Amino acid sequence: MSVRWRMPAEWEPHEATWIAWPHEKSDWPGKFAPIPWVYAEIVRHLARVERVRIITQEPERVRAVLKKARVNADAAEFFPFPTNRSWTRDYCPLFVKNPRGEIAIAHWGFNGWAKYANFELDARVPAAIGRALGMERFETNLALEGGAIDVNGEGKALATEECLLSPVQQRNPGVSRRALEAALGKFLGAREVIWLGRGIAGDDTHGHIDDIARFTSADTVVAAVERDKSDPNHEPLQENLARLRARGDLRVATLPMPEPVYFAGQRLPASYANFYIANRMVLAPTFADRSDRAALNTLARLFPDREVIGIPCRDLVLGLGTLHCMTQQQPG
User: Fold this and answer.
1) How far apart are the C-alpha atoms of 119 and 227, rounded to whole Å?
2) Percent of the chain whose predicted confidence (pLDDT) is above 70
3) 13-59 pLDDT, tens per residue?
């Protein structure tokens, strides 16, 4: 990699958004039926502003769903790659761009969040996309999910120690903090990693950043906060907020947390920070919660040039992710 490559910020122009059509019913036990319709609604919005590249082995079935949802079918493309799950944020390629405007793939390994055994189909997707698009692909020889990092496109990245440095769900055993930082610099152009502490309760990934703090501009981060001191999220989110505010080089805004979301006794990782920034649009998760309006208003202030659209996610979050987890941007 003699040429300098960087991962563009999510708000930079997209050529397309990648999603994988849901098919693994066990990810939404007892609640799978509405999930394809949630996906169709998301595609309906995205198709207004950019191409949507859909990974599925059942394109005709998906087309029928999209037609019923009145989706602009001309904006959708279908790719018949087999997958284990639908969380493209974590196994799709991280696209990078060089000063000449060329796009390539930084191919990080995927090992099922160092937790699940059935991940091998997902792990093959970056190579398949590279072949389909005719893109150059750089092997990093390290594991990293897209939800574990957030970048500002100008040399800064956010990550958590819990996800990338903890011995629990350890993605890269024996790889030091310094080595990870060097790899993020080499392959994504991150000259500095801003380390936060822990993620939220119910997070199956053990600390993904995209449920707790996100860049909204090159010098602004929005961080989730839990006001209820008795909630297990209160202390770790306050610590993360303190780390961000102590820096002095970032503007820090806050997002509330919704009241805890449970299904069949399981706490789910419901967070407004799992929004997705598309061309001219921000899709934001909502949870039929009294804090929905405050979260949407905060995102509208942070993205004044984009339409902010709330997407009901109480069903989707049973799969242990929402809007950011199910999307991956391909820069223009």
Assistant:
1) 37
2) 99
3) 999 999 999 999 999 999 999 999 999 999 999 999 999 999 999 99
What's the average model confidence in pLDDT over 223-248? Answer: 98
Q: Is the dihedral of CA 287, 291, 297, 301 positive or negative?
A: negative
* DSSP 3-state of 234: helix
Q: Would you call 329 helix, strand, or coil by DSSP?
A: strand
User: Known catalytic residues?
Assistant: 325
Q: pTM (2 decimals)?
A: 0.97
DSSP class per residue in 69-138: TT--GGGEEEE----S-S-HHHHS-EEEE-TT--EEEEEEE--GGGT-S--HHHHTHHHHHHHHHT--EE
Can you tell me whether residue 186 is helix, strand or coil?
A: helix
Query: From residue 322, how far is each of 108, 141, 203, 245, 247 by CA, in Å?
Result: 22, 28, 11, 27, 29
Residues 150 and 210 sit within 8 Å (Cβ to Cβ)? yes
Contact 197, 243 (CB under 8 A): yes
Residues 6+ apart with CB under 8 A from 174: none
The whole-chain average pLDDT of the chain stands at 97
Percentage of the chain lying above the pLDDT 90 cut: 99
pLDDT of 3 higher than 90 = no
What is the set of domains in the chain, with CATH numbers?
14-331 (3.75.10.10)
| Residue 74 CB-density burial (10 A; 0-12 exposed, 13-18 middle, 19+ buried) | exposed
Taking the C-alpha atoms of residue 221 and residue 47, their distance in angstroms, rounded to an integer, is: 27
Question: How many Cβ atoms sit within 10 Å of the Cβ of residue 201?
Answer: 16
